[in-house]
Amino acid sequence: MHNFLSFKTDLDVLRKIPVIPALILSDEDSEDAKTTELSLLQWISSKDNQSDLEKVAEQCFCRLEQVRVFYILITFYYHWKQSR
């Protein structure tokens, strides 16, 4: 859970950082990007349409939550079995 919160904080920071002009100017495929202020998160996400960082973070959080619930169930079962 701590790592996800840290990653979420990282996403918030990336969302606040403007892209430096050199990165935008190196984008030959996007003339509109030169006139629009992008955040670093938007720029990174635009480079790989398949894996938006926010979606990756959400998927990781869901999987970690599943593992946490499974761990709780296993721990409960183990203690229940020991008390019998």
What does this structure look like?
This protein has 84 residues and is an all-alpha fold. The protein has one domain (2-83). It is 70% helix and 0% strand. It contains four helices and no strands. It has helices spanning 2-16, 21-25, 40-47, 53-83. The model has no long low-confidence stretch (mean pLDDT 76).
How would you summarize the topology of this molecule?
Blueprint: H1 2-16, H2 21-25, H3 40-47, H4 53-83
What is the arithmetic mean of pLDDT? 76
Q: What global shape is seen?
A: rod-shaped
Distance between the termini: 32 Å
Number of domains: 1
Number of DSSP strand runs: 0
* Sheet having the most strands: none
Q: Any idea what the radius of gyration is?
A: 20 Å
